[in-house]
Design a protein that fits this description.
This is 2-polyprenyl-6-methoxyphenol hydroxylase. One of its GO terms (molecular function) is FAD binding. It holds the Pfam family FAD_binding_3. The chain has 453 residues and is α+β, with helices and mostly antiparallel strands. 30% of the residues lie in helices and 23% in strands. It starts with a strand and ends in a 14-residue tail after the last helix. The structure holds flavin-adenine dinucleotide. Flavin-adenine dinucleotide binds next to helix 1 and helix 8.
Amino acid sequence: MPDVLVAGAGPTGLLTAFELERAGLDVLVLERDAVPTTQSKALGLQPRSVELLADRGLLTAIEPHVQAKLPAGHFSGVPIGYSDLSTRFPYQLGVEQVHVAAAIEARLRTPVLRGAAVTAVTQDDDGVTVTAGGREHRAGWLVAADGGHSTVRTLLGAAFPGRPARVSLVVADLTLAAKPAGLAEDWQLPSQGSGYLLPLSGGRYRTVVFGEEQQRLGRDEPVTAGELQRALTAAHGPGVVVGEVLWASRFGDASRQLERYRHGRVLFAGDAAHIHLPVGGQGLNLGLQDAANLGWKLAATIRGTAPSGLLDTYHGERHPVAARVLVSTRAQAVLGVPDPDAAAVREVVMGLLAVPEARRAVAMEISGLGLTYPGVAERATDVPAAPDGRAVLVGAALPPGWADRVETRAGAGPRLVRPDGYVVWAGGPGLEEALLRWLGTGRPVVGATGSAS
Ligand SMILES: Cc1cc2nc3c(=O)[nH]c(=O)nc-3n(C[C@H](O)[C@H](O)[C@H](O)COP(=O)(O)OP(=O)(O)OC[C@H]3O[C@@H](n4cnc5c(N)ncnc54)[C@H](O)[C@@H]3O)c2cc1C
């Protein structure tokens, strides 16, 4: 019996499984789709995600697929420069999401079980029973990373407050039989308008359209080449001719977040826990950081060494971060509304973003680099994660009894770094307190399940 079941082999589920496996646990990922998807929703990795993947040795396999290093992110289409941010990776990587997922999946010990859609979940004091692909699976815990339409969320009746979609959009990858004049052939930041065309590899282009026709059509209406042709002609004129539509999907700007990320022995992560308009490119970043935050806490809880309440700091730390992204994406969507008053607000905001301090504050937020948690200092930019998911103590002597949970390294600037890369002690008194607070006493508590449900 695995220690943990993970529902969903998207980037969030896969990284959660990776984190748990490197901490020595047995994990089984249950994925609905029979074969890995070839379609990428996200096309960008924010700097904090790049750091996290690099620290885990996962970036090397992604690098051959990187199509661009963009020295900026954007806020509602306004470029936000990253070049002065303190990171080894002051840029967004332009890379299709499938390559990120494939790089993580290739490093899992236990292969993903595909064609295994979760259809039922029950839990008791000792574990969870999950029906997937018509078979029952049992484990101590379930991580629900089954995406924005999460079945697990529905099965548990978990409150998912927010607002429904007001705008309908279509994302499509297609070839062009004729290109509009002046079409940029390099990878650029997506413009704000409907019908931008971004060159992918192999002669494919990515577009997102959200004109009047998309607002009229129902969510289940198939996307046709004719619909895309009309939208692209409206954006670029008669010179553009759609060739083959390779993939198309409708999506909306619904903005919702789970009230609680933990429901007993079920923990939610990624799009299963929060949905928003993908403007600014923050969804994938959020999911990967959820996984990095949850993995080591759940592993310590299962080993029985976690300090009291550690697992509940997952909700405590990650819920506010996604709540802030929901605020940011809603604000960015308003700035893009084709209305004179929204245009006026946009003009004011663009003026503010020209002020270096304001631009930097927004850059830190969108890049994920500015993230800190209550009672935790900022991330350690130069301390790669330990391969086995232990915390890392740099430049200080480790008191006896912690070596199973802390790797020690020589180096200047004493720091204790959590397994997810955040500094919880930076010299002076308080090392033992920090060890106790984040890593527990090291005396396994039989049957420990963390505190809340
Ligand atoms: C058009 C578009 C563009 C985007 N662009 C960006 C961007 O540039 N940058 C960015 O950061 N984010 C972007 N995003 C958001 C990003 O793609 C998501 O946030 C990201 O995919 C979330 O990953 P996830 O693993 O949580 O969920 P998903 O990627 O949705 O993965 C969920 C997985 O669960 C599986 N599943 C579903 N139901 C079940 C079930 N019942 N049982 C088992 N498995 C199940 C699915 O098949 C899937 O494999 C974009 C989103 C869209 C729609």
